[in-house]
Amino acid sequence: MNLFEKAQAVEGLFVKLEEQSKQFHKEAGMGCISGCGFCCSNPEVPASTLEFLPLAFDLYEKGIAEELAAQLAEGNSKGICVVYRAQSTDLSKGFCGNYAKRGMICRVFGASARKNNKTNLKELITCKLLKAERPDAFQNLTVRINADLDIPLAPAYYTQLKDIDEALSELHPVNKAILLALELVLRFHYYETEGTLS
Ligand code: SF4
Question: What is the atom index within ligand 1 of the atom nearest the CA of 178?
């Protein structure tokens, strides 16, 4: 698989996850707080180069990949995801500037579960704000995902990412993952053009 094909395989996985998550949200009725960007304002968001290949190809198509890569390489983004558009001074309110091409971590958060190794029970992967604001709903949902409510299992999706490319699945802080993806895409297109010219 070349880099573009890997990006397409990642998008295919996102479509599958999206379908399962949509069904979960419909039945669970516990979505994110409107306008909240708390998770995206965390500079420690762990992400892989691979999950941001679709974003990097999209930014290349829009003609802004090089500029953004230079900005990230200079460290101007203060660690918070470069795609995030903050709408409050404490940065906790805002939105994703490229929701359609967001990474795997952005998709599994609040819409998936992992298994607790000791209890073997599913635990909802969600934020501390939702847990604090809606403790009863959170508890009910925890019971339901361990009874009859279907929920995507994040580790299974991460395994499928690894199956596409294990080396590119290594985790980094989010902006480093985006930078590495942009650099790969820029190199890919550079060699593609060179090949066309020669
Ligand atoms: S890509 Fe979008 S959803 Fe993901 S961390 Fe960045 S701003 Fe948030």
Answer: 1
C-alpha 30: how far from chain center: 19
Q: 98 C-alpha vs ligand 1 centroid, how far in Å?
A: 8
Q: Are strands 94-96 and 84-86 parallel, antiparallel or unpaired?
A: antiparallel
Q: Cα(12)–Cα(88) distance, rounded to whole angstroms?
A: 34
The DSSP letter of residue 33 is: P
If pLDDT is split at 50, 70 and 90, which confidence band does 125 have?
A: very high
> Which is nearest to 39 in space by CA: 92, 108, 86?
92
Select from 83, 91, 99, 176 the residue to mutate for testing ligand 1; criterion: most ligand atoms less than 8 Å from CB: 83
Domain boundaries, the chain: 3-190
Q: Is the CB of 81 under 6 A from ligand 1?
A: yes
The pTM is what? 0.92
Let me know: does 23 contact 70? Beta carbons within 8 Å: no
Nearest to 112 by CA among 181, 188, 16: 16
Cβ(56)–Cβ(184) below 8 Å: yes
* Beta carbon of 174 within 6 Å of any ligand 1 atom: yes
Say what the alpha-carbon torsion angle 112, 114, 115, 117 is, to the nearest 10 degrees.
-170
Amino acid letter, residue 109: F
Residue 12 has pLDDT above 60, yes or no: yes
